[in-house]
Amino acid sequence: MRKIPYGKQSITEDDIQAVTEALKSDFLTTGPRVPEFESAVAAYCGARYGVAVANGTAALHAAMFALGIGPGDEVVLPPMTFAATANCVLYMGATPVFADVCPDTLLINPDRVRERITTRTRAIIGVDYAGQPGDWDALRKLADERGLSLVADGCHAIGASIDSRKVGTLADMTVFSFHPVKHVTTGEGGMIMTDRDDFDQRLRLFRNHGITTDARSREETGQWFYEMTDLGYNYRLTDIQAALGTSQMRRLPEFLARRREIAAFYDNQFAGTPVRPLAVREGVEHAYHLYVVRISDRDRVFTEIRAAGIGAQVHYIPVHLHPYYRSTLGTGEGLCPVAEEAYRQILSIPMFPTMTAGDKEHVVKTMLELA
């Protein structure tokens, strides 16, 4: 039986060569390839700084540290996301507050955000769910009105834009992930984009144990002295991973074009059928990390399409329904009814650049037979 995963990396001989050269170099970590990768992503997005870290979760954690989030603070965020978006707030001893999503896009609803803001709120995290940028203009206006910081969880959305403004420049900090199913991979990896000097400095401190200098900078200056000025983590990305990331960035336009081509095919084939894709906002150029549809009897369809060799997934269980959040924060059904209803219907179907015409047709044919 032919197996089609829901997502998959694309690795070329150029990628392998880049990694091989890094392995043969003097630096396997804290070397020149990390800043090269950071510069490549920052230049692509139009941001001043990129700070590479070990994974997308580390990037979210670092962003909360850079903001100074701590005990007694609240951060408003959507439930329709991976748990790490909320977990990063808990890591800092603060409280995540869930604001419901828009029914057509499953992006955070600015009106629901406004309702959740209290005197303890310090920041808003928006999630560019599936690769579609949220309503960042409305979120920025709200954040500015209330004196709040704005963070974009853009882990699905590198290469997406609103009115030609790229994700990576729409919030105070934007977080990316380089997991293998994402647009660009480093195996595991993440990055935070920002235009602010102070955030850049705090992010770099945090990823390196809270220590003021790293091994390479001490080697270059001939100095041994360093100080730990804050409690940080070892969240560094290696030069091996960075070499792969820089090579992959050269193919990002190709990856995006291919994902959009597949999405357009799906849109056309599912029009007027029981398989209902999520809406795309006006002025948005979607990055299509995921292609999410609503469908009746989702659990049956999931089981049967997996049995047919198609690697569908569900993204996501709303975070406030996870057992840990129920027991720790007392969250549960009824808190975010739009996300809860969508969760019972949504299915992510295969979306990756190396899908063949036969793969696409098989997915569509099987979905329509099961719908």
UniProtKB/TrEMBL annotation:
Keyword set includes Cell membrane: no
Q: Where is the active site?
A: 182 (proton acceptor)
Signal peptide interval: none
GO BP term (any one): polysaccharide biosynthetic process
For this protein, the record's Pfam families field holds: DegT_DnrJ_EryC1
UniProt xrefs under InterPro entries? DegT/StrS_aminotransferase, PseC, PyrdxlP-dep_Trfase, PyrdxlP-dep_Trfase_major, PyrdxlP-dep_Trfase_small
Keywords recorded for this protein, A-Z: Aminotransferase, Pyridoxal phosphate, Transferase
Known EC number(s)?
2.6.1.92
Q: Which SUPFAM superfamilies match?
A: PLP-dependent transferases
Q: Which CDD domains match?
A: AHBA_syn (cd00616)
Similarity comment text for this entry: Belongs to the DegT/DnrJ/EryC1 family.
This protein is called UDP-4-amino-4, 6-dideoxy-N-acetyl-beta-L-altrosamine transaminase
**Organism of derivation:** Pseudodesulfovibrio alkaliphilus
Q: What is the lineage of its organism?
A: Bacteria, Pseudomonadati, Thermodesulfobacteriota, Desulfovibrionia, Desulfovibrionales
